[in-house]
Structures are given as C-alpha cells and as structure tokens.
Specification:
The structure is a homotetramer. With about 300 residues, the first copy, chain A, is of the alpha+beta class. Helices cover about 45% and strands about 15% of the residues of chain A. Chain A has three domains: about 5-135 and about 210-265, 2-Layer Sandwich (Gyrase A, domain 2), CATH 3.30.1360.170; about 155-210, no CATH class; about 275-305, no CATH class. The first copy, chain A, has 13 helices and nine strands. In chain A, the strands form two sheets. In chain A, strands 2-3-4-8-5 form a five-stranded antiparallel beta sheet. The relative contact order of chain A is 0.14.
Chain lengths: ~300, ~300, ~300, ~300
C-alpha cells in the first residue's frame, strides 16, 4: 500500500479534528478511523464513518425511547438470542462506510452483494493508477485437483518464475499502452500535442483484471456480517477472504458483543440437513453409523464428517 | 403527543451526554437529536442517529482520501449537478435513523418504501398503548367528487359530529375489549386470575387501523428524499404528508446544501412528456396552442396547464 | 372463501383459454393455475402466473445456451448441491405471482419481506368488503405462559364464548359505522343525498385489523422459500403459517426437485453454533455431556436438546 | 457473434418445442424467443423466458380476479396514466430473463443496477473464451475536449492504426499467457503433464477488461425500463447504449402499449427544475428571457435551451 504525501496529509487532517456529538460512539473504532489497513500488495480498507454501537442493536430490538440498554449481561444475552434465532432486523440498524482499494477481479465478486451502497472511482473521467495485484509466492496456487473450484499447493520453481514474469510484464506493457493510447501520462498531462488521444472510457479496456480500483462502500451491520460469513469462508477465493478478515477486525472494534455472538453462532457453527440431524441423533445415542446406512451421498457424508471433525 | 415521565427522563439522559468523535457532525441536527417533533394528535418523529453531512456527498462523488470538499461554492455546484442529473449514489452515502410514532393505516403506506430498515414495536410480545388517531375538524374531509381518490372540503355540522362520535366510541370500545380479551390492563397486570387471557398476537386484531404503533426507521438520504418527494406531494394523503414535512425539516438541519438542491430540482419542478415539451416549444415561440391541436388528452392538457400555472 | 359469480366467471374464462408457447411449463402447476386455494375463513392464495421450472435453476447455474439439463439424476444432484451450500442466485431465476386475500394483521407481517413486488387493493379508491377473520375455536389460543411470545392451549367455555362475541360484534359494528361515515353501501351507492360522506381514505381507519385485504404478490423462488422457511416455522403465528403452507403446496407442483431439496436441507435441518457442534462431537465420541459442562446457557441447551430430539 | 454448432443446436431444440399453457403469452416475443440478437462484435442478448404482458400491468393495477382488461383504449389510457404519474408497482409485476454476452467493462457498469438477478459464467470454475471487444473504426473515439467525460470525433490515420494494433496484440498476448499459465488449452485439455497449472481463479487476472463474459440476467419491467432510460441515454457510454437499444427492441415486442407510454412520457420528455419552469412560464407568456435574468447558471441555461430545442 502506498499513499501519496497529499493523501496522507488529508487523512491526518481528518484524524486531527475532534468534534462533540450527542450520538453514541465506538471508542475503539474511533482509534483507527480514517486509517488505511493494508490488504494484499497495494490494497487497503479504511473506515470513513459509522453509526451505532452494540447498544443500538438492543435499542432497536426494544424500540426504546432511551438507550435500550439495561445491564451488560442482559445486552449480551439479547444479542446472542437475536443472532441465534436470525432476527436480523436489529442488526440492520447500524451502518458503516469504508473506503476500499482492491483489484478489479475482487471488486467483481464483491459487488455481487447488492444490499450496500457504492461509489466507485470512475475510469470514464479519470486515469487509473499504475498498480496491479501480483500474488505473493505463497499464494501462487495451482488449480485444485480435487474439486473443480479452488486451489491446490503453491507453484514452485520454473513454473512459478514464468507466471511472475508473465503477470509483471503484461501489467507493465498493458499499462504503458493504456497511457500511450490516452496520449496522457499518469498525471493527465498531454504527451504529444499532435495526437488527439483515445477516450478514457475506451482506453481502460486494455487494462487487465488485476489492476486496482477503489470505492466507497457503505453497508449495514447485518449485511456486513453476511458478507464476512460468505467471503471469509474457507471456500472463498483467498484474495477476497483477506478483505473479509480485515473487515472483521473493524467489527471487533466497533461491535464487540455482536462480533462475539457472530463468531459463536455463525462462523464456528454448521447447518445440518434433516438427514445429517438424523445421523447425529443416532451417533449421540451410541450407535455406529456408516455412509451406506445414512441415506446421504458420499459428498454429503464427507461434508458431515468434516463438520464433526471425524474421518469420513 | 404524550410521553411518560420515564420516557422523558430517558430522552433527557441521552441529550445530556456529550462525547468526542473524529466523525463529521451536523451541528444544527445535533440541537434536536432525540427530541420528538410532534405530528398528528399523538404521533412524532425523532432523529435517533445520523451519519454524514453535505461534505460526505461530495467526498463520495470524488472517492476522495480526505474531506472531498474544496470551497463551499464548488460543493454546492457539484451537489446541484448530481441532483439535476439524478446521480443518486453519492446521496446514498449518508444515513439517518428515526423513531416514529404513527397510526397503523399510515404505517401501511410508509412500509411500501422497501429500501429502508425497520424495527416495529411488537404487538405479539407487548400491549399497545390506548392511543388512536382522531382527525382535527379541519381534516375531517369529505370524499372528493372530482377524482376517485382524495378529499373534498371538510365535513361540518351534524355529519361531522356523528363521525367524531363514531371514531371516538369505536376506538374506546375496541380498546376496552382488547384488554378484556387479554385479561390484562395496559400495564400488563392480570385482571382476573381465573381466566387465561387471549394470546396477544390474536387480541390485537380487534384494534382499529387508527391505533398508534411505533418503529425505528433507518434510511439513506437518497431514499429519504424519494420518500419525501412522493409522500410530501399534494396528492399524498394528508396524514402521511405531515410526516413527510416533519422529515423535511430534519433534512434542512442535517443537509442544508442538499436540501436546497432538492427543493429546486425536484419539489418545485415538473416532468414533461415528449408531447408536453412540444407544446412548450411552440408556446415559447409565440404560438397559441389549444388542447385540440396538442395531441394530448384532456387530462394531460389540464396537468400541463397546471404545471405552467395557466388555466386549462 | 366466497367469490361472487362474476369473479368465478372471470377465473373460469382464464382457465378455459389455452395458448401455445416455446417457454418451459410446469404441467402440475398449470392444473391449478388461477384457482383460489382457501386459507383461513375468507382468505385464499391463487397462482396467477409463473416463470421457469426445475430445469431453469440448472440452466442458470450452468449459464447454458440450451436447457442446461443433462439427466434427471444429475439435475437433482446439482440442485441439492446448490441448496446445501446456499448458492442462492440460481433459485432467484424463477418467478411466481400470486393473488392473495388475507387479514390486515397478517398482511403487516407478510410485507416485511421486502424482496418482492406488491400491488394492494386500495382503500383510498375503493370500498373494502365486509369480511373479517374470526378464528376457528381450535385456534382461539391463550397467551403462552412459557415464553413471552406465542400461544398456549385453546380457550374454552365462557371465556371463549365472550371472545367470539366481542370479535363478531365489533367487526359488524365497525363495518356498519364505516359505511355510515362513507354514506355509501358496499356497492358504492350513495345512501343519503343530503350528506357528503367522509373520504374513503379516512373512513377505513375505523376498521379493525382482522378485516380482509388483497394483493398481487410476485416473488422469486429463493425469496419465496425464505418466506416459507420463516413463516412456515413452528414459531410463526398460526394465521400466517397456514399461508406459508399453502404456498409450499404450490411450490411442490411447480418445482418438485427444488422443493424436495428444500425440505431436506432447510425445513428439516438445524443450525448449530460452535458450542453446539462441540457438544455433538463429544456425544458422538461416546461422552456424556451435561448443560453445566457445555458452556451453553440453559436456553441454548434446551434448544439443542430439542433439535436432537432428546430431553433437556 | 459466433455460436458453436452445439450451441446453435441447443437453441434450435428449444425453439422447436411448443407447449400448451393457460398463462398469457406475448406472441411477437415468442417469435424471437431464445434467438441471440447480435450486439457489438461478439456480444448478444437473447430472451430466455418472460412472464406477463400489457394486460398483466392493468390486472395488477386493478388487483382483479380476471384479466383486468376492459377495452384496448381503456388499457392504453390506464397504462399512460400509471407511466405519467410514476405509479411504478404495476410495471414490477412483469418479469423477463435474458442471456447476455458482453465485455467485462460493460458488465461492470451493468451490474450497478442492483434490483435484478444475475448468474454469471464462472471464471473460477471454467475457462473463458478467446473473445475480446475491438471497437469498429467509427467507434474509436477521441477523448471529448468539452466535458471531462465522453467522446469526441473518431480517431483516424496513424493514431487509429496504432490503437487497433495495441488492442489486438495485447488481447492475443494476454489470452495466450492465460492458457499458458493454466497449462490448458481453450477446451480444458492439459498441455504439459509435468506442470501443475495455475489456479483458474488466479490466471484470469491477466485478461483485459474487454474480454467477453456472459450471464443470465432477470429483471422486472419497471427496473428494465429504468435501465434502458439510463443506459440508452445519449450520455451513456456507446458500448452499453447498444445493449440498451437491443433490450428496447425486445420490450416493443413484449409490451407494445407500455413501450409506447415509456417512449412518450420518459424517453422523449424532460425534467424541469423550479427555475426552469419559471422561465418557461414567462416565455409562454410572450416574454423574452435571458440567462442573466433567469437565476440559472450558464450550464443549467444551456441544458434548458437544449431541452427546448433553442440556441443557448
């Protein structure tokens, strides 16, 4: 992640200003407000604004005139109850706004979450920075041989060397061609006064999907947790999972009670089918059950055994 | 509007607390934070939390690292441009949360606006207050004779007297029957220990549509303005229009520049059809145009003349 | 449920017409197309239109040029996989439209599902029918004594008699007052030419929450199943649960493979928390676990034991 | 646009099948059902399914038991009224599903319309085709010199030649590198058995934004028209505008009355601000008004004069 001195000065100016408010605040989140948290090689997330705290969830659930809060323990109990029983609307009552820098192929997965607000940096108006995602060697994964999706071990040796060579050279070349077609340098200065320059909205099409873009992204707490659950899952692509993990860190600071309930009831839990529940009832009763008698397909059986931490 | 002493104390406690924040604030809105603004005979709206200010619209439109703001005049210019050209996403970047008390027949119109978050006071769990909307004499309107929808003049004399009698007596009787079926008083105390009491979720069905309910309602600025435009319109039912007007007052305090742009480009404006535009071009060229030559239906013509402040 | 002869004739006319189409069809659903399926005392649901079948889910998941279907068994396997892993977007690719008649207090729960399209019969323009929901004796439940929400046993004897008396008399009286204030009979004929009549949008406020309304409701398959899962659950209020059950019957006809996957992986399943999963791992390993050692609250423990079909 | 013989055979099979239905049909749309309509050099849209017709809009607006239709003229009148007064919910009652092939930079604009359902071809699972958008010479536009956004005249001569060279060579090279990193050919056959091959979800990042993707896109009629209004506008980028125009052709076949109302009241119309309306009132009264006296900025004035077809 690299910020220009101007950008850093702007961020510092925001952090230096302190105002009075009658609204609730989340002190641990205030500590990192506006600060970019690095993700991948050039990306970041930073919290730009927020609304509400754990008490606001309780307040909304009770439709109260005041804080809604009684005692810390009761609040945790109510939040746990709401989370466990998927009463999602009180969690929709808190809102957070991020500034995110991310590769376009990650942005394309991210944007599929529709219940959020987005303002993206426009490559129709503006020139994109010369920043491309290049995986770290550990993340240069081979195609998974088991499933059709996902990754196997990291590539090594000559194969890895060649992949890095391709990714770096193609990024450099396509970006150089981008500015050449624009007839502008990165700062927007005309290069050759005798040429017209290709429209920005067209020239961008030559950039590759690992070029970085950025956007403001605003979302309510329920949909944020849903995003983190899906994109922080082990089956999600690594490059979006690290963003989900960074988002989770900000939730911990913002909403400690809600975050704990989320970790207990969602992230660490599992959904069992009717058949899975039947198997478990029998096992809990001391019975030995095999896949053959379970009525489950092999794949389902393997998934169930994984959830139970047993060999399939 | 009547608050219990407990409710007032809770509100005062919230207003008395002041905290420090690095977030942007809207000082004029802070002045009325948490305070109920009366609407109708027992209703209110009150701002419970908010996020963002005019500068946040500019910041999102520019996807900036800092405030995004340059000079006040430039900000107003950009906000006007965004509003005029219906670039709605920067206005989605601000959020506000209200606590609203309103009659159920108003709530049923309100909830049709789907892009918002709601937590309603539950009449499955709790006992509703004995508060019913009874129109003021000026608002006891006759059925409009012109269109099928809307209102004519206020009723008077014996007809009005009888309507008030019906509304008041039926409200009192159905509420008394509600608590009788519950076998509970308003505070939830059992009345007759030998009776079981009807389930709350059932007993409520005997209440009439002018009983008051309440909810927390959270919405982004764009959808709030859309709500105000539709429900603050002259064709909207009076009983929801007054809520829209109260909401607009809070927007003025929260977002003065955006609110001014909204009043100029939406509320005071008009949408013209292709045919309407054609008529206006001819009129602006000095031509006299009649409905017959306009290609418009009588109804369309009347609507156009109204928009132009001319007789049809 | 009572339809007028005109309404029945209109429905028969629609059912009698047969057209040719290149679209996919769901023959078992065509059999009941347009026909009202009775729910509660005066309500119904009826399928008015639909789009897609089980094959369309497969087709969308594969983004195929043709049907997407390979063999029935493969289709079922893919649908099961999508359902189990909550890949919801292919199920959003099918759509269904219902005409529903329902009491207003049920409509108020129903409308909370925002991802759907609704057109409701307007009581601003039109006069509502004289139809009110009165529970059957079996459903005249007492307030639950265990939790704060829900129902206990049915009321009986004098208490039940009095409740029916109240519900019936108040419905009749408020409706009579409604038409008196309107100065119109049910068919919209003016009663007393010397009176103006109260505006329809006002007079309706005197009706109670068990009066019937009706609407067109259109929803995609994923959101329909989500509705059925929440509102068909044992904790949902009986009066909306019977609608969910009627909807489920139409899904069985429309989407047999998807419906089966839904019953297996959602309706009959359970979500376990991290702590619940831990308990189950220990039990499956032959260990005896008590609530005290489980790290779970008594309420959580009771919920887990219920899911496992064991005594708490 | 190029389809494989297999794809063509699949499409023909769908078109050859005819089924009976009691649902309404749109015969002119049935004629082109499943057929790809070419857009840009390799793209297309094709209607895969639909639900409803003009009568369904009327039916929903009236919440009718039957067709809702009275006479053609009355239907057109009601549809015009709904369109003019922005009563949008009846238009949400019709639904259509497309299969679309489009360059990724167009897909990124398209997906910003959130109220729709999407299933995209997955480049995590599958290998993308070797198809890239290369503009036709007429569309190889220079950057607009007036505004910051948009296009000027087409490039010519040496500058155009060089742009084509870049776009073609970079597309060819990045695609060759994509398959080299995958260690697979386009059909998914392993090339070098001694290499592992980079994960598909990673290799795709080397492709440029003009590579084609495809998806199933399902949307209701109201949101479809909103999409067409925004993306078919003169200010939209050419490459998405041609998709909007192709969509409009399908609406004409599907919904002739609604389409006509849309063209009259939206596409050909204009929204006037309060200030614009004031100017027009004065002009229609025979007064000469200049920008200076109008209270409008130069930009606003220019926009108004454009709407009136006058010189600024």
């Amino acid at each position: 992640m690299s910020l220009t001195p101007d950008q850093q000065a702007e961020i510092e100016a925001l952090r230096a200003a302190t105002r009075e408010t009658h609204r609730v605040t989340a002190p641990a989140l205030e500590e990192i407000l506006y600060q970019p948290l690095p993700v991948l090689d050039h990306g970041f997330i930073r919290v730009v604004d927020y609304m509400g705290d754990d008490g606001a969830v309780v307040q909304a659930a009770r439709v109260s005139y005041g804080k809604g809060t009684r005692k810390l323990r009761e609040d945790q109990g109510l939040i746990n109850y709401l989370m466990r029983h998927r009463h999602t609307t009180p969690f929709e009552m808190c809102e957070i706004k991020y500034h995110v820098k991310l590769p376009i192929f990650v942005a394309r997965q991210w944007i599929r979450h529709r219940t959020a607000n987005v303002n993206e940096y426009s490559a129709r108006y503006s020139i994109l920075d010369n920043e491309f995602y290049i995986p770290a060697p550990d993340n240069l994964a081979a195609q998974s041989t088991a499933g059709r999706q996902g990754r196997g071990e990291a590539l090594g040796g000559e194969e890895a060397r060649r992949v890095f060579e391709i990714l770096r050279e193609d990024a450099a070349r396509t970006y150089a061609h981008y500015t050449e077609m624009l007839n502008e340098d990165e700062a927007g200065n005309v290069v050759d006064p005798d040429r017209k320059g290709l429209a920005r909205e067209l020239a961008r099409m030559n950039l590759s999907l690992n070029v970085y873009t950025q956007w403001y992204w605003k979302v309510d707490l329920h949909n944020l947790l849903h995003f983190i659950a899906l994109r922080g899952d082990a089956h999600a692509q690594y490059e979006i999972r690290v963003y989900a993990e960074a988002l989770l860190e900000t939730v911990k600071r913002w909403m400690p009670l809600t975050c704990e309930a989320f970790m207990t009831y969602h992230m660490g839990g599992a959904h069992l089918s009717a058949k899975g529940l039947e198997v478990i009832k029998r096992m809990a009763g001391g019975e030995k059950v095999s896949q053959g008698e379970s009525g489950m397909s092999k794949r389902e059986w393997r998934e169930l055994m994984e959830a139970l931490g047993r060999e399939a």
